[in-house]
Amino acid sequence: MSRVYVQCVLCGAPFVGTGWLGECRSVYTRGHEWSKSYLSGVGIKDIMHSALCLVPVDPKARYDDPDYGTTPKLRLGTVPLFEENRNIFDPNMRIEKEPWGFFFHEHCWGILCEAAYPREIPIHTLKEIFMSCPASYCGIDWGNGYGGIYGRLLQGAPGSSGFLGRLKDLEWRPNGRPDYMNAVWRFDPLRIAEIEELLEESCSASNKQRKVDTELNSEIRSYPESKKSPLCDPLTTLPPEIRETILILLPSQDVCNLRAASRAFASLQLSNDFWASRFSPGFEFSFVFESRRYLENRLSSVSWKMLYDGINECSAIRSMRNRRRIWGLMLPLAQTLIYIVDHPLKGIPAPTFYNPGLPQTGIRWRFTSSSKVLHGHQRDAACRALHSRMIDFDDAIDGAYVSFVKFSGKEYVSGMQFVLASGKVAEIGYILPQKRIYLNIKRHSGQFESNLQGFCLAVMQTGIGAIALVSSTGKLSQWAGLPNGIPLGLLVAHGSHISSLRAYFDVSIPTPCLQQILSLQGCKMVSLGIPHKGKAALPLRDTELWFPEIPREKSNLVPGWRNSPSHYCPLLYLDFGGQNGIYLTNIVSVSLLVSRDSNIPKAIKVEYDRPISGSKVRILDKGGIYNSDAQYDSLVTQGIKFAIDGASGEYITRVDIGHIYGDLESFADFNVSSNLFPSRKE
């Protein structure tokens, strides 16, 4: 295969050399055994441009063990093998047996374990979270640039996750070898000598700190209550012990603000307990997990103020900066893993490509999804339909609670709790009570509008970001989540109400149950479906994702013109004529805009003879609608312009673009037809 550098899926840095950057672990699967996951031992990946790695099978084994030569080992690839990609490594590999997995540095694994402490890392859940991210032969893309060490390329369609750019601080020498000596990511984030030295110095300085604490305690005990005055800060009425407890519970920035605003808090000396709290979970120095052994043992033999100041002074050290960066990546991942373990996936299990052994539903479904391919494994998929759940409704629906999960800085729908008229609750998905929004489909008078007819969904490439309910009268509820800037899709059962739902989720965990049907739990929702009744073709308005808005009902859309692609590809929509064609008489021209340095069409521009909603221009491209030329990309220039005499009753009846064979981005001709000019070809 081509030369690529394989990156650690936890920190993003490549595997290079024989130091910590070359030490490799893996969470892996044997062939197509999707429900099984294993943790390997520590191998050494000293060949930067290889997508294969030799690791010991035993998780406790290392490449530098004395008996490593006789230790059982595995040769792992970075992707599962199928017929279409079996030749990328070795044509003799067995497709359904070859092990593959996700590689990470041993030291990054150690930091993840510290972030999850005292819980253990659920290996299968971790693998499925990895599988839920956009992947390549090199690694995966979390969407966060790995804490800033990667740039990001321009995004594609609205709602897409974009593309991971080049690794920063990685330069190439004339001889073709990489130069990364000054990059922050190459410095060991786990074993930092300065932290251990500071802990030793802080312990030796503890006697002086204990003297300060004694003086503080004496001040607290002898606090002169009689000196209080009505003109004083009212917070002086709080005992010093309470004030100190308040400061210990507050973030450091809030402590500074409070001490600046209140004389009562400003006069309170900060104790050793306060400085120790800065190293507790949730505070700024929680990444110094070496201090945990002192915090847990309640040892007062540490000058926490001295340690705090020392860590501050060392904050510019590259290894410390790398620790902060990786800790910022590992902590939310560890929290997500723990949440998933503690919350079950609700609903009746249904089969998927990765879990085909469950009973078939016998129902024909129609889905609105982040990917059109729900059955199969795509290497570059932005998310995967790993698990599926169903629910049935036996009563009218009052409303629904929508739960959300945060992943890589974005919020996704994770599950729904439907409140039935009988008072019962029907649940599907991953339910998080602390993060949920209630949607109501009642009339303001309190009477039902009838029943649930469907949903309006805001769908990103990586999952469903927002949802609204549609009643049987077509009324839309409020939104749960933020749909702005995300393509929208309709999922409506025309002429009937919904009695069943099916959803797909992209993260799960096996639990120790005797029956496989009860052994799966999960995370964010990537697809939602309703029963599809009848044989008539659905209108285009119902089958596609639209941006920035869904066309109005009864819009004159060309039926059946599009074979929906398997990848994420929403349709862009500009209602330039207005409702019932109210603005057609104001149109003076339509232009196709192309890139300045190529023949690639980029946008459609419509001009009016007067301001429409404050602007005489509408420009539609993959990023949305622009209301002026100044807002639009300077790299795009006007290509082909057609004058339209809207005032005389001319309107567009047809637009044709002829592509060059094999190149869908460029075009050979552009043809606009109107009621007055049947064909004007460029």
From TrEMBL:
Q: Which PROSITE patterns match?
A: FBOX
Under InterPro entries, the record lists:
DUF7600 (IPR056021), F-box-like_dom_sf (IPR036047), F-box_dom (IPR001810)
Boundaries of each F-box domain copy?
Answer: 232-278
Signal peptide limits: none
- Stated name of the protein: F-box domain-containing protein
This chain's source organism reads Byssochlamys spectabilis (strain No. 5 / NBRC 109023) (Paecilomyces variotii)
